Amino acid sequence: MKKLAFLTLLALAIAVSSCGTSPNTNPTTSTSATGFWEAQLIGGTGEASKLGFVTAFNVINIGPLDITSFSFFNAGACFANGVKGSTEAGTASFTTNIGTGQVTGSLTYTVTSAIPVGNVLTLTSNVDGLTGTSNGTTTTTGTLSNGVAVGNWTLTGSSACTGGPPSVGGTFIMCQGKATCTIP
Among candidates 122, 133, 57, which has minimal Cα distance to 94? Predict the structure, then answer.
């Protein structure tokens, strides 16, 4: 009986000591998202239905976007293009699987008009709505390529911009480094 109790305790000790030491089957690396991104907005009414823009930013894995460039294709009555026409801000959060190089995460991007005052455009990606590939390793920071973010946008502001209601919205796609991108 003592041998059975001893073997049971030994098996239990081995099982407990191995907890938490399983190999990481999903190792991650740092990935940097840089360069130009084009956003196409679908939906909305009035002038809000015509919006689209190109932007450039930098971010590594998680945090605020360091936005280095921004310009609307068609700002219309919603925003004024130019140096002081709007302020832009955003955040990203993504992880990279080393084994596959697959990047998944999320992105938010907000444009607030200075002229005319009070129009706010917000893009919010779906859960894991930011995807792409990375060439990173466990010892190097990779670069995001073929980045795509999809989700929903809302615009609040003047009736001249929204077509009447105080808020309108739709879906968006934002593609990295491509002249055009299409809804998948």
Answer: 133
